[in-house]
Structure formats: C-alpha cells, structure tokens
Amino acid sequence: MMMTPKNQTSTDKHLCLVDGSSFLFRAFHALPILTRPDGTPVNAVLGFSNMLLKLLDDLHATHLAVIFDSARKTFRNDISADYKANRPEPPDELIPQFPLVRDATRAFNVECIESPGFEADDLIATYAKQAEAEGIEVIIVSSDKDLMQLVTGRVSMFDAIKNKKIGPKEVLEKFGVGPEKVVDVQSLAGDSTDNVPGVPGIGIKTAAQLIQEYGDLDSLLARASEIKQPKRRQSLIDYADQARMSRDLVRLRNDVPTDLAVSQLQRQNPDPQQLLTFLNEQGFKSLMAKVHSRLLASGENIPDIGGRPVTDPATTPPSTTQYELVQSTAVLQDWVTQARFAGAIAVDTETTSLDESRAELVGISLCVKPGHACYIPLAHRHPEPTAELDFSEASAKKTSSPQAEPLIQIPIDEALDILKPLLAEPSVLKIGHNLKYDIVVLRRYGITIKPIDDTMLMSYILDGGSHGHGMDELAQLHLGHTTIKFKEVAGAGKSQITFDLVPLDTALAYAAEDADITLQLHQMLKPRLLAEQLVTPYETLERPLIPVLVDMECEGIKVDRENLELLSQDFANRQATLEQDIFQLTGHEFNVGSPKQLGEVLYEEMKLEGGQKGKSGAYSTGADVLEGLAAEGHELPAKVLAWRQLDKLKSTYSDALVEQINPRTGRVHTSYAMAAASTGRLSSTDPNLQNIPIRTEDGRKIRHAFVAKPGCTLLSLDYSQIELRLLAHIANIDVLKQAFHEGQDIHALTASQIFGVDAKALDPAMRRKAKAINFGIIYGISAFGLSRQLGITNEESAAYMKAYFERYPGIQEYMDRTKQFCREHGYVETLFGRRVHVPGIHERNAARRNFSERAAINAPIQGTAADILKRAMIRVPPGLAKHNLATKAKMLLTVHDELLFEVEEHAMNQTSDVVKKIMESASLPAVHISVPLTVDVGHGASWGEAH
C-alpha cells in the first residue's frame, strides 16, 4: 500500500519507537476542540492520526511500535508518593480520546504497546536495549528530555514537530554531558514538572560541571566534603539520599517484561477497510481523502465505506518540495506553460499591507502540483542604510547583511504582461485562499483573475462553525503541516519589516509554501463538496459573491471629511464638559477612561454598594455594572456611560474614518470578511461598518457623514423583518404568516396574542415587550435574558414566554426539533443547504451547552436570511446591466439586511424598482417562502437620510 518502507534493502533493520503520549498531547494542543457527530471530542485523535500518517510516509524503518503510558501510577510512586503529584488532571475533552488514539494506532496496523506499572519511557528503553543487542538501529520519535539518556551510537531520537534529529551532540548541548551521564545530571538538578526533588540550589549547568569534574553521582556524593563552595557543599551532604532517590526516579528501566519481541514489531501495511472505516466513524473526511489517494497510487481496491465512497482527490501529497525563485522571463514563461498544461494553478500575492485598498504588490507565487511551486519577486528592495531592522534568526543565518546579495528581479511591468493572459485564461482554473484579497490588489495593476476557486470558502462551506478557516490552521488540521509564520520572516512588533524588505531566499520559502499549501488544500477539500452534497451552497452562494464584493470594495464610499472633523470636535467638547461634571461630583480629577481609577472612586471613595473585584484586583466597571448603578439613581455612573459613548464614537468612527480615507481615491474602502460568522453573514473591517450605533442620535450622526458624490444620491434597500418572516415560514405559524400577508403590525399582533388585549387598546409598553420577545425568540433568549432586557423579574419574563409559546406552539416545536437534529448531526442547515456546525451542542457544562442550543435555534433563521441577501447581491449586477444601469448605479455597502447604492439622480427610481424586485424574489426558484419578503426603500444625500 502507500506506507511501505522506502529505500530499504533486505538486510537493513531499523526500529522506530513512537512516544505515543507525547504525540497525543501535542496533537491535542495543536488543534481546536473538534467533535464528531455524537459529540465526542476528536481533535487529538485527528492530530495524532495526521502525525502518524506523515511519519509513516517519511519513515525509513522496518519495525515500528507506538508506546503509551498505561496509567499515572507506576513503580516510581512507590519510591516517592509525590512523583508527578503536581501534574494537573488531563482536560475533560482529552479523556475520552485516550482509547480512541489507541484505536487509531491499530487502524493503521501499528503495534500499540503499554504495560501496567511502567511508563512508556521504560518500555521504550527496554525495546531500545533489545534492538541494540540484535544489531538493529533504533530511532525514538519524541523530544522528551528523559529519553535522551538512551541515546547511543545506534539509538537516536527524532523531534517530529521540529523535524530535528537528536544524537549525542544534541544531548551534550542540552545537558552539558554525554547521554551516559544524563541520569546523574538530572538526579542533581531534579525536575519540578515531575516532582523529582534533586538537590536544592543545583541546576542543570552546575550539575553538568560537577559530574564532569567528579565523574558520576556516587563519586560526587562520596567526595562532597571537597566542594569549595560552602552552601553547595552542605546541600550535597544534606541531600545526598534525596539525590540518590531522584536517580531512581529519572533512570529508565530497561528490563520491563514484554509480550512482543522486537522481531514481532515488523512494519505492516494497514487494512484499507479497517482504516477507512475508523476514519469515517470519526468524521475525518479530509484524512479519508488523503488515505484514499495513497490507495489509488498503489493500485489498491477502494472499499465502499458506509455506502459513501470517498471522492478521488487526484494526486498524492508530496514527500519533498521543490521551490524555485523566478528571476528571468524565460523561467517565468516556462511556469506559464506548465500552468496551461496542468489546467489549474494556485496563486498567492505578497504585498506591503493587509489593507487591500492600499497594499502594493511585492511578488506572486504559483503552484502547479503539490510540492512544486515558485515565487516571482517583483518589488523587493534593500533596506535604507540607516534603517534598524531586526531580521529573524533564519534570515540572519542566510545573509550576513541585508545587501549581501544583489536583488535580481524581472521588471514588474514585464512580469505582469507575461502573467496577465494566464490569470484571465478561461481554460486554467486559478485557486487561492481568500482570493478576494489578491483579486483586489491585482485589479489595480490591470489584471483580472478568472475562473476561480477559493479554499477558504470551501472550508467555510464544509466546516463552518467547527473551526477557523485560515491557511495555517487548515494546513495543520488537514495536512498535518506546520506552516512558516509571517513573524518568522518579517519579525514582530516594532521591529517588523514589510515584505518588500524580506531577503529573497527567505521570501521564497514563505511565499511558495502559501501557494503549495493552497493547492494541497484544494485537492483535499473540493472532493468533499461533492461527497458531502455541498457543491450547491459553494457554487451558488459563496464563490459567485467574490467578484461582487471585489467591485464594492474597489468602489468604496465617499465620506464628508469636514463633517467628521466637526463631529470629532463636538464629541471632544461634550466629553470635556462631562469630565468637569464628573470631577465636580467626585471632588477631584482622575482618568475617566481608567476602569481601575473609576472603580476606586465609585466603591472606595463614594462607598457605593455592590463593588466586585476581578482577578486583576480592580473593581468591575463594565457597561452592565454602570447601567445598574445609574438605574439606581446614581448620577456619576450615568455621566461616565455618556462619556464612554462619546469616546467610542470619536475614536472608532469620527477620528478613525478620516484616517481611513484612501488618498488615491478620496473614499473609504471597507473589506468584507466572507468566512467569519458561522451563520454565513458578512462582516466588515477597516472600517467596521456593521457596528455603527444607530439607536442613538449621536450614532446616527456618523451615518450622515457617508455621502453621495455630486450628481448622485444614496439609495438604501433593507429587508423588513426578514428573520421574523423566516421564523413564521420555518416554524409554520399560520397566524404569523397570515399577519405578514395582510401587512399587519407583527409586534402589535404578538402583544395582543400573549397579553389578551385588543390590538387597538395596546399601550406602547406592551408592544415594546412583544417586540423584545419576537426578536429574542429568534436568538433563543432565556427568561433571564428577557428579564434583564425589559427590566422585569424572572417570574414575569417566564410568564410572558410561556404565554408566547402557548399562542405559537409551532415555535417551541421548531426549537425542540432543531436542537434534536443538531444533537444527532452536529450541525443545522439553512433552507439553501448551508451547514452551520455547533460543536458545543453536547457540552457537559450547562451554560455552554445552553449557549450552543440557542445558536442552533438561531442559525437556520439568520443563516437563511444571509443566504437570501447573498443571492440578491449576486443577481444585482446582471440585473442592473440588463436595464442599462450598470454605469449609473453602483452597489457600495451591505450591512446586515441592507444594500446601499450610489445612483445617478435621474436613474434613482428605475434602480430602486429593479433592485427591489431582485431582493424580494431572491429565494426563488430554489426556495418558495410562504410569506412575502418585503423591502423598505429610502434615499438621500447621505446614508443617514437614506436609511
């Protein structure tokens, strides 16, 4: 099969002993908590399986075993009851994975060995001794320092994470002595992690010096009276027995009784049926695809697992990498030819900034097959002679000076002329990870990229809610590969340099890897879309939205700089007035923005009740605390809240937006995150336009600073109560559906239903309560949450909710049905097939489980609303073009359920009619909503006027 030893002769014998416990804990901490459909955590199992598969791929061994600890209590606890007593209990999420990693080992047909009363290290020592006696080379896969005492000429160690071999030289560097003296040094120095006491006051360095001078521990202790340093001499005399006991604790046993001889550890290929069945049971789809590709490459028959065979990912991940620095047009032309022949190519750009609207292109990387990638430097430069640069250690080793080697680069215009036809060629698929960023950057250079695939969005559709979708995390999760981090090549903090100052050889390794990993992820993830029936949401919701968002981000929106500056001045003046009022109330000045100082004023000086200190020792002064104090009639907290609101508006919006005006366009260009919210909603950054407060007058003033260019108006189209409408449809509530068809006031209807009052006799407070319940139900609000929102008792809110569910029993049925579906499958679905995974649905902690249940209830509703808006956005550009409006109306922003356009004044009515029709029919023909989707329309010179 795919895991047979490579480059072995019949006479070669190599034994590989894997420290299973080390693998397990590293795997657990490397990946976020993941659960299979029944709720069992499996992140450590997945990481362990990936690491084991990679080891099997790379291994040159004829004999193999994974060694585990059988229990925490061993013979060493009889020597010292305190041995390892201070180690914390394993995390709750890890405990159920202990047996599963053993099952994983057996599924790979690898011997899984443990022995009661002994540690894994003792078994490793025993097998290493036996193998060495038989003339067999031994490699121990671990970085555990305790195992370094076993290193000899025929026994070495290998750190699989750092890809580093550990021999006698490395042991000497670590302990200051050779492997044969490691036990003596550890006996003196002790080990706080394992509660090995050693000799007080003696560390590794001192212990090594003493052993080098006196030869061994026994000789040292016998001659302790000769030590010149009084304190050290007395410590060795007083704690001699403790040092000997420590030696018994750290010295590994090499005589553990074993059931299997070394000859019985011969490496075997796994049984495909057994291995794929195990991986399928854990839900490891990408790992199944990886194993499947190896089976294909070796000509094995592919078993049908559970009636759902894994789709062929076409190629096997590479065992080696070939990265090339492209510095001539001839070599670049060759890569273009390779790309055309391959029919698909991964593309990634390196730039000077994460702000895509201002980033300058530095270089482009390409990958045509796994392990075979290149980097095309275009705008690297030498640092200025006076610049103080802190290059990474790796960079320092490769170049003694930033100007040590000449920068050979193809002129940027010449290189882009060669690449431009390829990147637009219809017959070559361009693959990226967060490709929207690269498209925006390259568009400014006159380059179009199409057709496209995006691995970030594939992951988002496949596993939304399960984990993050950044390349680093996905590489570790699906490929078992730790990527080079940006800070490793460019530094961090104040010493960080821009990518154009990174040396070319360092840039090559980093940039080419990005393209390589992107292609490998594509080969892992794309087959899963078909196998898991998620092609439609990817190809109809996410991928076609990329060019739409690119257009919006490039267009940007005009802001009124003078308006913002006046707002900032107004906010600052009012803050100053509030500060004087606050100082007058306290009798002295203090830093109003300091939670610590504020807490001392409130609870120590003013003696207000209810002060609670956090872990830092400071009083809690969050908004909820201050609101509670203000509600009790205290003036100071109310003024601080007002001050904070002005400070937030000033720093986050009126000041920041001025700085974010692009000098090239004179407009603000937000960036939309497509794979952030698990429900499918878009979020925006730089600036974040989702959180502009609109419930206060001051917050609404910010929107008035977003304006139309001369001759145009801003047109806002906003879905009306779309989530409530979807709740009525999904939960099939006839009375609500009828109300929406008739255009009734839905909140007045709800108030009438639950309070038993005629709609005409309702007072505003009743309607407000009904509105809170209506929207709260969508988010799975609790009685406690509702009571806080309405300022009523828990008993009152519980009674309101009870009446609500009695009047609308279908809603409770929907909630129960949704939670049960989520428990069984680990995810919920929108009406358009988007899956939202809810990993915490099986949490044992009630608070976290309840939170996940509320998320499960909300996700199909909010997710469907997000899908509908995305479908509308995708249809708007061709709809405008069809009516000759493409040059007259530009879609600028989307916030929640709203679309904002900049439209030539004479085309406003026609644009409004076209877009409104598109939005109200966006669910069709895929889904027929049983209530009308209605859109509110507004327009004006500013966003504030239009909304």
TrEMBL record:
Residues 323-530 form the 3'-5' exonuclease domain. Residues 13-268 form the 5'-3' exonuclease domain. Transmembrane segments: none annotated. Residues 699-907 form the DNA-directed DNA polymerase family A palm domain. Pfam families: 5_3_exonuc, 5_3_exonuc_N, DNA_pol_A, DNA_pol_A_exo1. It comes from the Bacteria. Residues 343-531 form the Exonuclease domain. The keyword Amino-acid biosynthesis does not apply. One of its GO terms (molecular function) is DNA-directed DNA polymerase activity. Belongs to the DNA polymerase type-A family. NCBIfam families: pola, PRK05755.1. This is DNA polymerase I. It comes from Candidatus Nitronereus thalassa. The lineage of its organism: Bacteria, Pseudomonadati, Nitrospirota, Nitrospiria, Nitrospirales.
